[in-house]
Amino acid sequence: MSSSFALIATGALMSVFLMMRSKNPVHSVFYLVLLFLHCSGLLVLLGLEYFVLLQLLVYVGALAILFLFVVMLLDIPSTEILRHQRGTYPVAGVLGLCLILSALLAFTQPLVESPFQTSPIPTTSTFTGQNSDFVSSSRHYSFWNNYRTATSTVANLGIRLYGVHADLLIIRSLLLLVAMVGAVGLTLKRPVSVPNQDVFRQHYVDFQKSLVQIPQNKI
Amino acid sequence: MTLDLVLIRPEFFLLFGFLVLLWYGTGGLVRPVAEIITVADSNYNKQYSCLGSSLTTTHETEVANESPKISYANERPGGEATSAARFASRPAAFGSLRRPTAGPNHAASALCLWAILWCLLCTVLAFYGPLQSVFLGGSFQKDYYSMQLCGILFFTAAFVLRVSLGWQKTAAIRHTEYVYLAMLALMGQYLFIQTTDLMSMYLCLELQSFSLVVLCGLNYKSAYSIEASMKYFLLSAFRSCLLLLGIGFLYWQTGETTISHIESLVFRTSTEPNLLLLLGIWFVSMGLLWKLAAAPLHFWVPDVYTGAWSSVSLWITVLPKISVLGFWTHNWQNLWNRSFGNTLAFFRILSMIIGALAPLAQTTLKRLLAYSSIGHMGLLLMPLCGSASNSVGALWTHMFIYILINLGTWGLIMAPMTRPNQPSLKAAGPQFIWDLKGLNQSSATAAFRWRVFMTSLAGLPPVYGFLGKAGILWRSLNNGLLITVAVALVYTLLGSVYYLKVMKVCYVDNPTSWGTYGKFSSTTAYIIAICVAFMLIGLWHGNYFFLLTHLLSLKV
């Protein structure tokens, strides 16, 4: 329980509270984004860098922005939201009970192998090398992220994505280009009756001949 | 790193060329140009006419039909007598200023010309690339087989673009995106041939199918085109879902995405392969067969062919098949043969049955050709049964001849056509079979060409199409596929019926009114004539072709 965990957890709780209590749905979505950021901070503390990226990209980058757009598009007045919130207290109560129960179970541990806690990896000879008999007999537990000796997941991901398979990234970018060109091409109206912008006509305009100087006294 | 840089020259060239085309086509070179301010003034007129006289000498001919649309708002009332004379000379001067001094007036076909040049350069690069190696993180591999196929792919693409070039104005294709998307699809197909990895395979497949989806839908004023685009898009989305699932299974079971590694990991061990692994191979193969339009996965074909522009249909007929068959024979063949082997018989027999029966009921030329391409796919899947390299040679012989036939046939479809009951309306090409009624009387040459290509598609002896079919049947007999050969013979028999129906409409029918071909674009006509020449003399001078495909098959 480090101080940073306390800080981030408090921040997450605060943003949840603010998200629930804010009257304006747009503010609510912004607090949701803040909550996601705090969650990714918690994941950083656990050492799960890849999931941090996923959290940021998928939830913050895609989902929250989608929510924001939908909320802005629908433009729901807050009174209507409050009207629809009346029946939610029983549901919230059930969920809250579940939360309290699971937190209590996680702290008190009624069983030896509690399903509410991440089970530590039993240390075996393959992990520790020498003194295996002694270690395994004493049932020494250790968490999996203590065993990570290689470079971090994010570094590996970066090397794979931008180094080894950079070509695939470029092909992916071409795919996005196709999507963009296609979206424009499929929706662009090309009316026949109006003068079209002929690119080649514009290319071959000789600007020295198209500019005509008007004599000063005629302006 | 240096080796990589040397090796990816063609890719770099492709990408760079594409970006230049994009930049050029979207007007990156255009500077803002000040409009001409017209002031009806004697002084100004003098200046103007002297400008005009220097220009009209060069471009007198272009000017006459297009007068400028600039209104002379502030005319001076004075000097009427002289200005009348000046007015006479003004439109000419104006026209020469407003008209482009060089370059064609049809942006799409101008870009297309550049793209053709670019394809030909890429052909040379692919044929004469000196280094052959795995490159860029091992996802792609250049070797003799794939580079030769890439060269052929580019060469075919150049001709496919060229054959439709003169027709683009007739079909009202004035989308510069047409060229970009075609080139991007080509890039996907090019990389697809070289791919050795499931990830890159998926990306390349998506690149080409996305581009083709947009190409099908560009003509969005026609409901058929939208239907084609929607069908292609939705079905290819389902296909890629299954493909991704298959790739996921393969990765789950082996922890590898490189195909050769999967092969050596799984099939060189003694234990029976896992069910999930087999399922993965099955799904990926289904994705590939969907792209090839083999029979139970062919439902998108007729509608897409009907709805899309003929040039796009030609593109879909020829180019993805080269790339997918190249990938299959190069990388996927062993994996498929070890895991499923003879299951391919189901696909090819069903393809041939559908290719034999379905076109009998068709009235549209494009649908007829679509079903005939499904039947031909059944034939092309026949050599994939065994691992004998000779059968791959037979496959490519038939494929190359099929490309030639298709170039000619679609070239004949891409020519303006005037129908008897609507003489003012010029169709973009013959659409129904009965459009060809009495073609022998209106244009005997065109009728002869239809006859040659239809006979070739049927695979009957006096023309070149026979050679490919005979080679495939011969190889299949060698491999002992008696049932398949029997089905193929029945397919040929039934197929001849509807090809003969087209010929009957051209020659025998005595109509009261008939449609006539308009003016062929000269290059289209040349390409058709070359294809006809190949068809006619190929059967007696086909040695070089056989040697080429045999060499290819030895290098698989």
UniProtKB/TrEMBL annotation, chain A:
This is NADH-ubiquinone oxidoreductase chain 6. It is a multi-pass membrane protein. Its main location: mitochondrion. One of its GO terms (cellular component) is mitochondrial membrane. The keyword Isomerase does not apply. Core subunit of the mitochondrial membrane respiratory chain NADH dehydrogenase (Complex I) which catalyzes electron transfer from NADH through the respiratory chain, using ubiquinone as an electron acceptor. Essential for the catalytic activity and assembly of complex I. It is found in: Mitochondrion membrane. The gene is nad6. Keywords: Electron transport, Membrane, Mitochondrion, NAD, Oxidoreductase, Respiratory chain, Translocase, Transmembrane, Transmembrane helix, Transport, Ubiquinone. It comes from the Eukaryota. Belongs to the complex I subunit 6 family. The chain crosses the membrane at residues 6-22, 29-50, 56-76, 88-107, 169-188. GO terms for molecular function: NADH dehydrogenase (ubiquinone) activity; oxidoreductase activity. It holds the Pfam family Oxidored_q3. Its EC number is 7.1.1.2. InterPro entries: NADH_UbQ/plastoQ_OxRdtase_su6, Nuo/plastoQ_OxRdtase_6_NuoJ.
UniProtKB/TrEMBL annotation, chain B:
Keywords: Membrane, Mitochondrion, NAD, Oxidoreductase, Translocase, Transmembrane, Transmembrane helix. It comes from the Eukaryota. One of its GO terms (molecular function) is oxidoreductase activity. The chain crosses the membrane at residues 12-30, 107-129, 144-165, 177-193, 199-220, 232-254, 274-292, 304-328, 340-361, 368-389, 395-415, 481-500, 520-540. It holds the Pfam family Proton_antipo_M. Residues 196-494 form the NADH:quinone oxidoreductase/Mrp antiporter transmembrane domain. Its EC number is 1.6.5.3. It is found in: Membrane. It is a multi-pass membrane protein. GO terms for cellular component: membrane. Signal peptide: none annotated. Its main location: membrane. It is an enzyme of class 1 (oxidoreductase). PANTHER family: NADH DEHYDROGENASE (PTHR22773). This is NADH dehydrogenase subunit 2.
